[in-house]
């Protein structure tokens, strides 16, 4: 709920794998070396035309890997055409590295967060801050379209604003404290926006009615299902979301990042188009315009922040990826490894599949819970 279809509620990836270093010798005699365990100047340029390095910075890790996270190996002239990866291996999950204590702590933190959210924001018999917030915004206009757009705007300003202040905030109060602040403000606003949309999705002016068109329901369902594989790239590291592990800003390059550098934007567009086509009224259009606009801003802002944090390494990733899905693959900038499909046969993607199916079948429960709030 929050980074959003606003059916997305905040999440972050699993830590990158522990690298296994191997030396390799290229066939042609070029200035190509791999250095191990050196701490270079952070301004060093990391590109295909420069000396390649395995770098370890305090806040970031660059490793030359294949699609499965191993150190890059060049054994033939054909292999030399494959692009070396400088970013992190997304969705990598090593069960052997997981600690039961970390996941128990995650469950405890999640339970506390949900309890506080319910008492302070959702439950009207508690503090009921969410009800007061919705009523305050609703007083601005009698139009559900205006209220919907206003809720999205408030969420977008807070969510993207805090994201832009992340570097400064983490220096002032630390990574974990800033994560708590970020989630503690974004999550209630996301919940309010989602609940208002559920309760008012059939208000407003009906612009078209296509629900009786044969096959449309199946097409909309499939589009929504696929959209969540783009919308949830951040579920790759839930322990960072809950600040059980120290939160990091990751430079991902494999998996779904090969398709698009901004999967959440793509997933949000798919989700919005599917829901707007199905519902067909002015409230759905207003919600879609607001959400897509927010994510288009996120494309620019996300690239800007990564460029500041990672410099030339991000420029390398940017050259090999695209915003428009499959564009970099089609024009040859993205070289797919032979086993690229294995990057999707991983625990995080299987988890997304289960949660997406669960959310679909839980739609009646979510709608009933939203109606009881009268937001």
Automatic annotation (TrEMBL):
Signal peptide: none annotated. Keywords: Membrane, Transmembrane, Transmembrane helix. It is found in: Membrane. GO terms for cellular component: chloroplast; membrane. Gene3D superfamilies: 1.20.120.1630. The chain crosses the membrane at residues 103-122, 146-165, 177-199, 219-244, 265-292, 344-362. Its main location: membrane. Residues 1-39 are annotated as: Disordered. InterPro entries: NnrU_dom. It is a multi-pass membrane protein. Residues 147-366 form the NnrU domain. One of its GO terms (biological process) is carotene biosynthetic process. Residues 1-13 have a biased composition (Polar residues). It holds the Pfam family NnrU. One of its GO terms (molecular function) is 9,15,9'-tri-cis-zeta-carotene isomerase activity. PANTHER family: 15-CIS-ZETA-CAROTENE ISOMERASE, CHLOROPLASTIC (PTHR35988). This is NnrU domain-containing protein. It comes from Lithocarpus litseifolius.
